[in-house]
Amino acid sequence: MTCVETAAPDAAPAHPGPGVQAIVELPDDAQFRAAVRDWLDRALRALAGADFGRAAMHEMRFRRRWEDHLCQAGWSGLGWPRRHGGKELSLPRQAIFHEEYARLQAPLPVNMIGHGIVGPTLLLYGSEEQKQRFLPPLLLNREVWCQGYSEPGAGSDLASLTTRAVRADRFYRLSGQKIWTSFANVADWCFVLARTDPAQKRHGGISVLLVDLRSPGVTVRPIRQITGEADYNEVFFDDVRVPAENLVGGENNGWGIAMAAAGFERGTYFAPRIVRLQAELEEFVRLAAATPFEGGRAVDHPSVREHLARLVVDVHALRLNVQEILHQATSGTPPGAEGSAVKLLWSETHQRLLDLAMDILGPHVQLGPQEPAAPREGRWQRDYLWTRAETILAGTSEIMRNIIAERALGLPR
Amino acid sequence: MTGDFAAQDELQLLQDSARRVLADACPLKELSAGGADAVAIAARHWQLAKAMGWPGLMVPESAGGAGMGCRGLAILAEEMGAQFFCGPFLATAVVGPAIAALAGRRGRMTGLARAIAEGATVLAGAAVPAGGQWIAAAPELGVENDAAPRLSGTRELVEHPALATHFLALEIVRRGADRVGLLAAPVPAGTGVVSVPRQAFDVSCPIASIRFERAAVAPGDVLSVELSLDALTALLRPVHVAIAAELVGVAQSALDRAVAYAKERRQFGQPIGAFQAIKHRLADAFVLVANARLAVRQAARGDDEPASVEAARLLAAEAALKAAGDYIQVQGGMGISWESDAHLHLKRARRLAAAFGTSQGFRQALVDRFVASVLSPPVPPVHQGAGSA
Ligand SMILES: Cc1cc2nc3c(=O)[nH]c(=O)nc-3n(C[C@H](O)[C@H](O)[C@H](O)COP(=O)(O)OP(=O)(O)OC[C@H]3O[C@@H](n4cnc5c(N)ncnc54)[C@H](O)[C@@H]3O)c2cc1C
Prior knowledge:
A: alpha+beta; Butyryl-Coa Dehydrogenase, subunit A, domain 1; Butyryl-CoA Dehydrogenase, subunit A, domain 2; Butyryl-CoA Dehydrogenase, subunit A, domain 3; 4-stranded mixed sheet; 4-stranded antiparallel sheet; 12 helices; globular; disordered N terminus; B: alpha+beta; 50% helix; binds flavin-adenine dinucleotide
């Protein structure tokens, strides 16, 4: 493939304090939380050095270094069974880890598809050989994954995808184009949805293939985003040979697997996002207190306070939703439409928060998203632009509303 | 843990029984048919409430009540909202016991809670001054002679006056930035109490203006105290929980009925519920109602979450007003008719949303507290350990 940016694994910096295994074995949740917080804080400060808390900490290179460091120290496979190298943490404890991670405002992971989607999918649907081959490097973050679902002609209507995989002896020959594939430019592998039986319409005839992005015939072309960064990509498959043993869960079973995979992080997906949202809301208040605005401070302006109240209430509601989902997931209640409701509310609330931040920045909005002289080194501008993506990725707001109306309210399709 | 399960069972029982009897008594058809007598409906519902023991829900067991607490209250009030219960539940079963508890600690109103639980005393809340401000700038009620007290002044928007054995005169007056004065007295209906009926916006809830003309109050039944605003909020938490829960019930009822209508009504050859504009409107209402219910349950649990009461009131009011408005819109011309029960939802939502505080007031309190907590976070306790520099 073209355009691979591999970060050399760094020598792990020292982080005094208890080891991961000792923390995992702490009997009490509150102790566990405190130990996780302490561990993460020390480790991130040690690794980031002078960049701690700065914008540089959120750039791709550092994100990858930090994630490698965490995984190699043992913070991976948190919910996986022990015999596959996992930590077998309960859902509430996994949520605690992710919350503490978010509270520290630690850099976002790079390999979220690998850890959140590919690992759990292989544990459930993978062959023994697939587990042996792919899980150990994933635990150490030695292989980064991306998710090849969307195509130029198949976005919200994913089932209309046309990338073809034709069985030829011990291979599939894969041809087609994926688009908006996040992290393909830094990934080693791609979790691909492809059509294996064109005779079957829509949801039938789709399979999951694990595709090595270094295979001949793969081209990855980064797409520049509105933030100026280029984290998502076009991925072209031009008659790529994919070994038949890289088919997951049987031919033409891909749709069901993809749908199940979307639910794997139920219970823990939103917890860190809401913690980050709460932290950003507090950050906003500090910004508003320091920003002169219409003859006073922005934080005192009645219109700002009105919008702020709405945000406080929505973040409160989101927190309660996350507790509820975690509770339901822990007690094994089958999922309803609540994931869609939380995705919708979270993405739209986050968008409103950044809208409000831009409102009060006044003429400073002219500073670009990578401008060090801008407030928070341009992070308000950058996040403002990014929040526009959140109402689109992982199912647009319109699709979320359709799902709620059809599944929760039973309205006709 | 077992205690929690037992409590959970008790709550489930309360919900099941309330749902059953209230569904049978639901007055929506009667009210939308026109000509229904709201006083008669309320009298019927109050008999039902007494038979179920609901007046004593919040009265401690030691005074003959059920000692249920806010979690049970939230469940019952939501069912009441969903089935349009009529009657002086809020004043009698929620405000009354809260005031009685406060007064009891000062040796006043000692028999009130028990009389409420027994069904002997029925209260109509008389809390709104002429100016309409729930927390008033200056006092309007006057009490003479503490040994044989007599109360004078007016109160507006008194709900269910016809069923009351007593009017619970209540006055909250602002004193400085964060304190209030509270005056409360249960005034027996009869001599010295003049009730002037007013046309009610919410036709399921009769109202009157009340004039106290040197009305006699039992000695020991007048409470006059000064409280911090925080203490007032704590005192009124059950009241806010009940109002918010009832709003959630109204919202759920409006949403359910709007959805049912959208599945039935056909235009352009398909059910209108297949149109995305209708779907998305109702999906948004669904999210809001679900959030409001979570917020009310949280406020009812009373964990140390300072935002909870205000957030519950705000979300519940918004959910009910939106769902009721959506219900009307989804019904088209039918939604504007008296014959549809949609307007009953909107009217009840409006009445409840303005009870014991406005959304604007809750929003302000919420934001003030949040901003203060961020900009001047509480100082962590100083470490006292030996050798700290
Ligand atoms: C930052 C970012 C990262 C992404 N990363 C990945 C990735 O890693 N892997 C991957 O496979 N994909 C990824 N995606 C793609 C994402 O899943 C799609 O963008 C999304 O599903 C929408 O598809 P689309 O872009 O084709 O828009 P379309 O489906 O064409 O939608 C365009 C507009 O039409 C509306 N619309 C479409 N259908 C309906 C309907 N039935 N009812 C009402 N409105 C409708 C949509 O809501 C939207 O407003 C990413 C997207 C973004 C923005």
